[in-house]
Every structure is written in C-alpha cells, then in structure tokens.
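Job type: complex structure
Entries:
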Amino acid sequence: MTAYLITNVSVLGAAPTDLLIRDGVVAETGAGLTAPGAVTVDGTGLVALPGLVDLHTHLREPGREDAETVETGSRAAALGGYTAVCAMANTSPVADTAGVVEQVWRLGREAGLVDVQPIGAVTVGLAGERLAELGTMADSAARVRIFSDDGHCVADPRLMRRALEYVKAFDGIVAQHAEEPRLTEGAQMHEGEISTRLGLTGWPAVAEEAIIARDVLLAEHVGSRLHICHVSTAGSVDVLRQAKARGVQVTAEVTPHHLLLTDEKAVTYDPVYKVNPPLRTAADVAALRTALAEGVVDIVATDHAPHAVEDKECEWAYARPGMLGLETALSITLDVLGPRWDLIAERMSRTPARIAGLTEHGHDPAPGAPANLTLVDPAARRVIEPTELASRSSNTPYARMTLPGRIVATFLRGEATVLDGKAVK
Amino acid sequence: MIRHLLSSADLDAGTALEILDTAAEMATVAGREVKKLPALRGRTVVNLFYEDSTRTRISFEAAAKRLSADVINFSVKGSSVAKGESLKDTALTLQAMGADAVVVRHPASGAPYQLADWVDGSVVNAGDGTHEHPTQALLDAYTMRSRLGRLAGLSVAVVGDVLHSRVARSNVLLLSTLGAKVTLVGPPPLIPVDIAAALAPGAAVCYDLDSVLPQSDVVMMLRVQRERMNDSYFPSAREYARRYGLDGSRMRRLPEHAIVMHPGPMNRGMEITSEAADSPRSTIVEQVANGVSVRMAVLYLLLGGNNR
C-alpha cells in the first residue's frame, strides 16, 4: 500500500504541517516529517478537510446508465472532494429490495473511488402505498440505514408514521422529499412573480412547508429521527427552527443550487434550471444561507441529478428536473460560507457522516483517523465547462461561471483517488 | 425591428404602434379584388402547430399568402417527447429547409424561446401553453383602436381564467405599454399570484365584475376551458356564469360607447351569452378579420419587407 507524505498543508485552516498517510490511516502529523518510500504531495497553500460526505446523490445505475453509472458518478464525487456518497433509491428497478441495494453497493466497491452507501426506498416501487422490506435492506451487505422515496413524497401520513417508527429497530432514518403532491400537480417552477410571467405552473412554498410541519410533529410523536431532503424555502427554515428548539430529532439538508440560484434563472426557459424542489426567490436563498451558517439546516447535500441530453434539450415542461452537483458543491459552499473551514467540514463531512452512520468518515485528519480526506486549493478559481466534468451527463447550471476553490487531491482509506486535480482511475 | 415576436414584452410602444399602423395599411388590401401584395415573394413561412388551432393557423396562412410568401403547414400530433421527434430535431429540419419565419403554436410555455435558439429565421409565437399569444394582443389592440379611436387612457377589463390564459398575459403587457389601464377580473383561484408585479405595475385586480363594468371602455371575456370546471377553481359552470359571465343586463352596466371582446372560440352561455356576443357592441367577428391584417404586418416587418 502506497504511503503519502503531504507536506506543508493547512489542516482546516490551521498553521501548515505535514501529514503522513500510511496503511489507510493518518499515521503522523507535525512539521518536517520524513518517510522514505512515501509519495510526497506538496500541500503548500492547500487546506486539508475530512473527506466530504454526500447524503443525496443520484447515480442512475441500474436503469439509466446513459446518464450516469456508479463508476462515473463515483469519479465525479472523488473529483469533488467526496469520500462517501449516499445513492438515492429511484433507480430502475427501484432500490426497494436487498438485491438492488447490494448490487449498487457492490458496484461502488468495484469502482473504488468513494464509498457508495445505498439508500433504500421507503415504499415498494416508490409508489407510496406499502412499506418496502426496510429491515431486510438494513440487514443486507449494503447495511442500509437511510430510507427515502426521494423524487416522491411519502405523502400518506399513516404510512410516514409507520416508517418513522419501524426504522427505529435498526437505528434507521427516513429522509423525506417534502412535497405535498396535490399542491404541486403539474408544477414546473416556484410559484411567484416569475411563474406568473412565464405561464409555468407554480410549485408553492407551502407544499414543502406543510409536509415538513406535519413530519416534525409525527417524528416528535413517535420519537423517531427524521431527515428533510433539499430544504428550499424560508418558511421551511422557520418550521425547522421551531422543531429543533422543541428538541425534535430532525436534521435537514440544503443543496448548493438552492444556496446560489433563484427562480429568475427560468426566464430563458432553459431546462438546465429545472429542478425539484424548484429554485426559489432571493429571500429564500438568504434565509437558507443564514440557516446553514447557524446549523438550523445541518448539512449541504448535492442532489446530484444527472440527465441525458435529450431529457434536458427540450421544452421546459417535458424536461426532467435535476442538476449536477458533485464536482461543484465545495466551490459553492466555499463561495457561500467563505473560508470557514471548520464550519465547512461540519456541514459537508462530519454531520452528514453522523446522520448516515458512516463511522469511517467525517473525521478530521489527525493521527489514528481513517485517511479519508481531501485537499483544497482555496486560492484557485476555475471556469466550469460542462463537457470537462467527469459525470456522464453535462446538466450543470454553473456552465461558464467562475467558481472559487479546486480539489487537488482526495484520499479514500489512504489510497489516492484524485491527485493533481485528476482522478487516479 | 425586432427579429422574433415571442412575447408582448418584446414590443416597446413605438414598435407596437408601427405594427398597428402597418396593419391598417394591410387592411386596405383585404378590400381589394386581388387581395395580394408581392412583399414576401420567395420567402418561406412555416406554420408549426403542435396544437389543433384551425382559427389561428388559417389566419397566419392567409396573412402569409396575401404577402405572397410560400407557406408550409407542419402539424405535429401529440405533445410529449415520448410521442415523436423532439422539438430540436424538428427545428433543425426546418432550418435545413430554409424557413425564413416559423410561426409556432405549442402546448408548452416557452417552447418558442427554445425554437428561436435553434433556427436562424424569425420565430412568431402563435400561442405557447399558458404563457403568451402576442399577435392576439396586437389584433385586440388594433380592434380597440379602430373602434374607440385611441388606446392610451382606455380602461380595459379582462375577465375570466387569467391564470391559464396566454391571451390575458399578452394583453396585459401590450395594453400597459400602450397606456391603457387593465383590470383583471375573475374568481380568486384563477387570478395568478403577483400578477401586477409580474407583468405590469399599473394593472389592477378585482373580484367583482359588476363594480368594474361602469368604468370600463372595453370588456374582454376569456374562454373558460372545460377541464377547469371539475378542478375546484370554482364550484360550477352555473355559478361561474352567474358571477363572472357577461349577459345582457351586465352589458347594459357598461358605458354607452364600451365594446365587448372575446378571443374565441366562445362558450356561449358560460362566460358570455348570445345576447352579449351578438350585440352591436361586440367586436368578435371584427377581431377575426383584424387578425389577418395584424399578422400580415408582423410577418412583413419581421421579415424586413419594409427594407427591400
């Protein structure tokens, strides 16, 4: 196993030091380390972070390998500084059985670029009618702990209650895609001034807020853990703030695009900006940024959603919702939070690892810690070129934007997955 | 002149008035024995229709033919990508055929914007989803001006399903640009959120038709689609007609000079009674005739007929 000596690197913004990585762990830290036979990585000017953990990734395999595969998505993740991603269940077939989650888990192992932790569906076929075999998925080789019908809301309150209760038996957590389906029939974008002007059916903020309000009450009632996917509105932040103040065991994520972009982007009718939940207003963006800094929203999760060209180069109403995120998430978080490295590590690595139960991830680079880490060049600025991304798809909303920060290297259990800004395999 | 006509917002007052003035000249052609001008001879106009709309297609076809353009009608059945060739592939086909103008009707809001990115010719939005229908607004403005002699300062009530109406959106934008005062009237669920901020800061909203009529120079009744009837926007067709339909007694609340408009096709007995639709105040048939003149003017100006 190759040893790596990272010299003169700033761990989470602290004074520069050397890091020796050997046998899958951070073996030693300190100035002036020597390690014969180790590959030296010049860390001058770089910041070392615990490897990022994404709680919300669509890898599209099985079913839409034309848009992404576990391997191409893993490569995109590693290049984005991730060492673990949680793969959403809305594949084809749906990840609602032990067989499918084990397949995804195995594909992740074979790719070997990040730890791929499958998420299991809450209901059979994401149909929202009856529970999938949650315990069997939990007991499988994939050891599923997060369950989500993401893409669909578990709208039936009775079913949601039962799911929240049931997963307590194996310390599971339900991740809710909060969208009241009757309030969003035919919805195309945020309901507001822009949707009125564009004649696109509105997706009202209340459709998200009403489900979050209901579910925090349900979680409180049954004493279960609840996670809210891609929170997008100021009203949702208010609901979460109150629930957390009462002690409800709820965590929440925000996507990079909801931290940066607004519904104004829809005015060209370019479906690259179509996403679910939709881009909201500047006031929502401001509330989400504050909530992320304060911890009312616990983590940044990408909702990385690759789509084939023909699913995006079409009429807005017919386009699939979703945008790429893995390779740009750190840059946008850095842009939004500034170089507050401890906060970034908390929101993008430690907390998501804790929510997901990924005990090997989310540890700061210190002696004895698993060597899952990434090196960032905070001074670099890069122009996003869709065709240069490692994802098999190119539906990034940041095309030709200049973003701060660049991932220089990523290590998974001591093995380099990215060096010199390039994927090792 | 602008290159495409995708939204009434593309038109400033000067451009809009140029179109209306040009339409007035074009209208004289309709009175001639030979209803034809050579202006667009050798130019190709494609009518690309993804929705059945015989009225609008015939109007554009007549307009293009009176200007001596070659007209190709391209009707696409079905509305989703799953059902056939993509809009982009169709656009590339039209591009290869050398279309100078593409007149597009499409059930998806915004489709003409994408088409405009993919073809070199001019794109005319002939109605896209619940977004806009700018030539309808132009022919409505033309009709108001020819009946009432002016547009600036007119009070126009637009009544009915504003939420789903491309006619309403285009009219609010254009009439506001031309100095008219627009009031949107309908049951609250059919008035979209933030409509004034979205389209025209001067636009007003009122839920009481009877209070609006005495101050209106124009009342424009919008068609209520059948599929709205069972979707809780209002309780029943009967209640809708009672509260928001234009009948004879309501019509008599209008000032003496006021006119009654409807973009067609009408649901007689629903949003408008026959007494109102067939009265001397009604401009409904004139609107159809004016549609050809206005579309002639739009094609003529977009294709640079005035520069040759």
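Summary: Strands of chain B lie at 44-49, 70-75, 101-106, 122-128, 155-159, 181-185, 204-206, 218-221, 259-261. Chain B has twelve helices and nine strands.
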